[in-house]
């Protein structure tokens, strides 16, 4: 297949449709995924291609959707369950954390739960405190769950294909602010491997480690820092938070001596806290400054667009903090 | 309790309808905060009919389509509109918006954007009412889609077990987003499920607000005496799920048929045919309501944006320290002298 210009949303759909064509055990289930085509349009028309037996509309029953996916995965299907918003993950947490995540371990390795839970998170649509969170920390905090968070059009496609190859449950979190983002996609090009981070920009002065939409904020900030302030930044896109590719991060931080972690999730006990602790532990002797976490404020998200936008990292904030690291 | 005569019920429904029409305009003008706006046009009899029999001190929770219910309980449309516009002058200072509006003074324990999320609170409110012998009831308003949530059944069981002064009101507008009720439930006779828990359970046609109000009167009277109840109100959601949804999942013929179930027009026609109000009187009333709601739009649009510092307020009680802003924390760390 040739290189195509596409959107994050359509790249996800292509990944699903190809996986379903290749493997008849792949099924998609969730609220509005069929006739409606998904709240954010990702599963549009899949029902026409694969029928209602494989693209299954469910009642508004999050706990049962995830629980049913667990059982289906244990008995030979490859379910892709959709949770309309990551905020609803709390309702499914027993099925996800106590069932899906622990089955392989508790049962002595007899069986795994190869399911993908697709959902979306993040801010940007003034959707209020119950529809705008970044809850990847909950997932990363649960041993047994894999976690993928694509930032680019290519990764929307490749990471979803890779998630569908995993032997264990994968939580796949899209960003609601990225669905209409355009980019080039070559489905045949060899992608970075599952669990590998990518370096999207190289610079000697500072390493920014980030994922999901904040990758774009970091890249924008890096441009400004290089252009206006002579600070050269490496930007690492983690792609998956579990597995976490520390082998890519370590030498970069050791070389630059300065590291910043950027995450939209709240700062306290969040993903950024974990990454920063890891970098500090492993690269301590090389650091010229404390690792800084630029993360979401420790508050719920407001519906007011003004408060919403300013409660998560912005390119301006990244630039500002980076400059202070060199002051 | 309110005056429950048809003229009053009509006026309350007209206010809800007009408010919602104005909210729709606010959205189209790009003045509402956010992408999420769910109008309850077509569902006015449910809000007004049930609220007519609620008293001061009663409490309630609503779902994401709850503007009409709150208004019917006496909300100030100015402060509601301002909240929907994300302004400081709104009920929740612009933090909640359309889906998270609340006012404890009016017994509104909160609108909820989690389907089913507000249902169990009424069990707790019922416990409070009984404990304090306040005579109050608590009402959970939710859509038919919420009947897919296990929490409803857990809550109904507790309410029945403990004989709480509680009512579960299901506003059955036939759809949860794009899914018709018969595509989401094995048994669309929703009251039968509630009856299985021992609740007083009924379904009523929402076309006629007086029918809704009568059913609510009965069930609420029972609830006040410790007989929890379930009321399902059949109606039709005139517009899409949210403001941008053009409802491609329903055909025009169905929508035209559905919109005939207009409780506001029905009440208007009845007022005229029963000789209770003249067309001229009704027109005057409608005009008065329209200008009230225009005023609310002006109030909302003119309101101030919240102050940035307010973002850290109310995470905890005012007596507690506010969270330290990320920027302050980072500035402090980066100001440290090197080793
Ligand atoms: C727990 C949860 N799941 C899904 C959603 C997304 N969602 C919002 S409203 C809605 C449909 C709800 O239908 P219903 O309860 O009948 O209320 P209606 O919209 O018809 O008033 C859905 C699926 C949500 N907000 N919360």
UniProtKB/TrEMBL annotation, chain A:
GO terms for molecular function: pyruvate dehydrogenase (acetyl-transferring) activity. CDD domains: TPP_PYR_E1-PDHc-beta_like. The keyword Nucleotide-binding does not apply. It comes from the Bacteria. Residues 6-181 form the Transketolase-like pyrimidine-binding domain. Its EC number is 1.2.4.1. Keywords: Oxidoreductase, Pyruvate, Thiamine pyrophosphate. Its cofactor is thiamine diphosphate. It is an enzyme of class 1 (oxidoreductase). PANTHER family: PYRUVATE DEHYDROGENASE E1 COMPONENT BETA SUBUNIT, PYRUVATE DEHYDROGENASE E1 COMPONENT SUBUNIT BETA. This is Pyruvate dehydrogenase E1 component subunit beta. The lineage of its organism: Bacteria, Pseudomonadati, Pseudomonadota, Alphaproteobacteria, Rhodobacterales. The gene is pdhB1.
TrEMBL record, chain B:
Keywords: Oxidoreductase, Pyruvate, Thiamine pyrophosphate. Its EC number is 1.2.4.1. Residues 12-306 form the Dehydrogenase E1 component domain. InterPro entries: DH_E1 (IPR001017), PDH_E1_Alpha_Subunit (IPR050642), THDP-binding (IPR029061). It is an enzyme of class 1 (oxidoreductase). The keyword Lipid metabolism does not apply. GO terms for biological process: pyruvate decarboxylation to acetyl-CoA. It holds the Pfam family E1_dh. It catalyses: N(6)-[(R)-lipoyl]-L-lysyl-[protein] + pyruvate + H(+) = N(6)-[(R)-S(8)-acetyldihydrolipoyl]-L-lysyl-[protein] + CO2. This is Pyruvate dehydrogenase E1 component subunit alpha. It comes from Dinoroseobacter shibae (strain DSM 16493 / NCIMB 14021 / DFL 12). The lineage of its organism: Bacteria, Pseudomonadati, Pseudomonadota, Alphaproteobacteria, Rhodobacterales.
